[in-house]
């Protein structure tokens, strides 16, 4: 039987038990057990209030945990679970599904270098190597290859702390890392947000690989 | 000035940064259609305009937007509208540009589409990587609430609409509409079995209209100017303009808005500037990485429309052209493509989970000199066995382009297999066969 009781509809497997979070309170940590910082709790409560069903806030809540602790720490996940009234295991399973949510400690600066088709064609692998080399041994930096970031117009490109830069020369990796260390603005000339529309410039694709 | 070969409707005034603000948008006539439709139009009138316009979905499948909206049952139950802003298919970056430059056009489109669907709650599901664009949307949504275009009792018409910008967290599969619903319900983003289709039973079990960013961005102009006006652009079966993302081996990668049906050559050579110095175009994906590649000879002189691409055995998909020039090795391109789908497979069904896995391993063997000639046929048969046998289309999305590459460039595969280096020692061979789970950054 489907959940909304219409016998003419096939059973929606997505709505069957096992895939939905535990509805019983067993295993849900109590708030007083988890020592959740007030701002985090308020933030998650505010997020839950945006949805008809509070569980919809699980990804946003995990983002909030990651923002607070740098990654989705087991403690942070327990705190979010207590606020959301779901089990920590449930949130853990959600967090582990998504590439941007980290269930292990990572550096505070996150650099995702695209190595997908269009970036690969224009030097994405070399750019990733350059970032890896420039950040080598420094735990503040988390450098990873990534799938298409939706900015193939500026290939090869990277997302640095959730902002897009490209087209990048391999040599600019070291410059970007130095700027991050010095707390300076990162590669302002390569900031995607400042680019004009391709059709409005004489040579929009100019730069790396051109 | 834009190139005269462009026809900017969705990207009109997009060069003006003020367009991002509600004042700027209204300065160009924005929200007038929302005001008129909320005050004067009935659900059926809006629906009819959308159906008559022939607007086809811009997210991949090309299904009639108006028809899909008309599938939603009528009644008192809660209904939902989801804007698909997951845009994660390699080669696609048009929605990013549309949201970044003209967020209010999308919000107005969502509000009007919500009238057609009788939805009281709308969501924009945006990929988590688009953080800058999500910030822009958040600000624009706040402005629209402030101005009374969203919320309860909109413009005192007793109509309500809540709009939430929901950020994903990095998973291509969440672009698949039913996986998107699961993700939005707070679960892991696994696709659901269809039917029931989301129009009947979607978010929270309620009827749900799901459309792409570009599809919804078209709505204000269609309702403002009428279906006939919209049909004045494009072809009979592909009306309207399309923002086409062009990338890879061209001089001027970027988004160009054109009438559907213009010669593909005009897009690749005219607007995107053709191949770089001293190179030639070998092949291209006409509709993102999921579309079967066309050779230059097959594809360049086709009109860029849904029907022409389908007739050529490929598809217009999301409208993203990726150009491979003569320096790109097709077997390596096939491997890059397969790795993406392997990484993004949600693992729920076997043909996709195992098929993407084995395809990657076999292609790796080929480019590493570990394959036997038989493997080429095995790769082809694996692709054939994936197609049509998966729960969602992700499996097919690898099998179609990879299958086409093997079929159309068999000689290149044979060459790369023959030319691959000396035999490997056992340890390396084992590594090549088993492969590290995460091989993304590994050079091939
Ligand atoms: C694996 C997969 C990924 C998809 N990703 C997207 C996406 O990122 N954006 C999108 O609009 N549609 C995507 N789609 C298509 C959606 O399932 C759906 O057809 C579309 O959002 C409907 O909107 P439209 O009719 O306006 O095109 C994807 C489909 C599949 C199978
Ligand atoms: S086809 Fe792939 S992505 Fe789609 S449900 Fe099956 S395993 Fe998951
Ligand atoms: S391939 Fe790198 S952003 Fe799309």
* Helix residue percentage of chain A: 25-40%
The rounded Rg of chain B comes to 23 Å
* Named CATH topology of the largest domain in chain A: Glutaredoxin
Number of strands of chain A: 4
Bound molecules: flavin mononucleotide, iron/sulfur cluster, FE2/S2 (inorganic) cluster
Please count the helical segments of chain B.
20
Quickly name the level 1 CATH class of the largest domain in chain A. Alpha Beta
Please write the string of helix (H) and strand (E) elements of chain B: HHHHEHHEHEHEHHHEEHEEHHEHHHHHH
- Tell me the major beta sheet of chain A: 4 strands, mixed
Beta-strand share of residues of chain A: 5-15%
Mean pLDDT of chain A: 88
Please describe the biggest sheet of chain B, giving its number of strands, its sense, and whether it closes into a barrel: 5 strands, mixed
Number of helices of chain A: 8
- Please give the domain count of chain B: 3
Q: Which CATH architecture of the largest domain in chain A?
A: 3-Layer(aba) Sandwich
């Amino acid at each position: 039987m489907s959940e909304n009781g219409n016998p003419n509809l096939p059973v929606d497997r997505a709505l069957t038990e096992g895939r939905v979070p535990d509805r019983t309170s067993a295993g849900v940590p109590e708030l007083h057990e988890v020592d959740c910082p007030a701002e985090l709790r308020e933030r998650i409560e505010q997020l839950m209030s945006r949805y008809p069903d509070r569980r919809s806030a699980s990804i946003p809540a995990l983002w909030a945990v990651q923002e607070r602790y740098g990654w989705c720490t087991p403690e942070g996940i327990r705190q979010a679970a207590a606020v959301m009234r779901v089990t920590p295991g449930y949130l853990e399973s959600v967090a582990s599904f998504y590439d941007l949510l980290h269930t292990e400690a990572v550096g505070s600066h996150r650099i995702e270098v695209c190595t997908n088709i269009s970036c690969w064609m224009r030097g994405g692998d070399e750019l990733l190597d350059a970032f890896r080399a420039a950040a080598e041994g420094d735990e503040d930096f988390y450098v990873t290859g990534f799938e298409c970031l939706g900015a193939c117009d500026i290939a090869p490109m990277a997302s640095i702390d959730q902002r897009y830069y490209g087209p990048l020369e391999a040599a600019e990796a070291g410059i970007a890392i130095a700027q991050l260390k010095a707390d300076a603005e990162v590669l302002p000339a390569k900031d995607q947000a400042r680019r004009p529309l391709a059709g409005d410039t004489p040579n929009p694709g100019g730069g790396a690989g051109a | 000035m834009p190139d005269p070969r462009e026809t900017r409707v969705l990207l009109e005034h997009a060069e003006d940064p003020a367009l991002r603000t509600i004042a700027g948008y209204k300065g160009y006539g924005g929200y007038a259609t929302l005001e008129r439709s909320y005050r004067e139009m009935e659900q059926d009138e809006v629906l009819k305009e959308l159906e008559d316009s022939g607007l086809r979905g811009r997210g991949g499948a090309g299904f009639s937007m108006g028809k899909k909206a008309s599938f939603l049952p009528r009644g008192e139950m809660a209904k939902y509208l989801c804007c698909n802003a997951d845009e994660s298919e390699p080669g696609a970056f048009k929605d990013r540009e549309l949201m970044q430059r003209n967020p209010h056009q999308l919000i107005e489109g969502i509000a009007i589409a919500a009238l057609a669907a009788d939805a009281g709650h709308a969501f924009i599901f945006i990929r988590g990587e688009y953080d800058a664009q999500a910030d822009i949307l958040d600000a624009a949504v706040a402005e629209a609430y402030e101005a009374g275009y969203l919320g309860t009792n909109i413009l005192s018409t007793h109509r309500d609409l809540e709009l939430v910008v929901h950020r994903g967290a990095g998973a291509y599969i969440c672009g698949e509409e039913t996986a998107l619903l699961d993700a939005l319900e707070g679960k892991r983003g696994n696709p659901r079995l269809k039917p029931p289709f989301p129009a009947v039973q979607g978010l929270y079990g309620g009827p749900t209209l799901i459309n792409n960013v570009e599809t919804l961005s078209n709505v204000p102009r269609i309702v403002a100017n009428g279906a006939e006006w919209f049909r004045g652009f494009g072809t009979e079966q592909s009306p309207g303009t399309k923002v086409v993302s062009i990338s890879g081996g061209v001089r001027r990668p970027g988004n160009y808005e054109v009438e559907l049906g213009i010669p593909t050559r005009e897009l690749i050579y005219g607007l995107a500037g053709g191949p770089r110095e001293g190179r030639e175009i070998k092949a291209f994906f006409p509709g993102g990485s999921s579309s079967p590649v066309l050779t230059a000879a097959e594809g360049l002189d086709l009109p860029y429309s849904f029907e022409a691409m389908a007739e050529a055995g490929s598809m217009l998909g999301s409208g993203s052209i990726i150009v491979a020039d003569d320096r790109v090795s097709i077997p390596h391109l096939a491997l890059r493509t397969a790795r993406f789908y392997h990484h993004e497979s949600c693992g729920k069904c076997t043909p996709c989970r195992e098929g993407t896995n084995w395809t990657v391993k076999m292609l790796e063997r080929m480019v590493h000199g570990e394959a036997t000639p038989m493997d080429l046929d095995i790769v082809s048969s694996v692709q054939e066995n994936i197609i049509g046998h998966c729960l969602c289309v992700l499996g097919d999305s690898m099998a179609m382009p990879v299958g086409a590459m093997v079929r159309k460039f068999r000689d290149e595969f044979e060459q790369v297999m023959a030319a691959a280096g000396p035999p490997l020692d056992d340890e390396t061979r084992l590594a090549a066969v088993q492969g590290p789970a995460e091989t993304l950054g590994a050079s091939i």
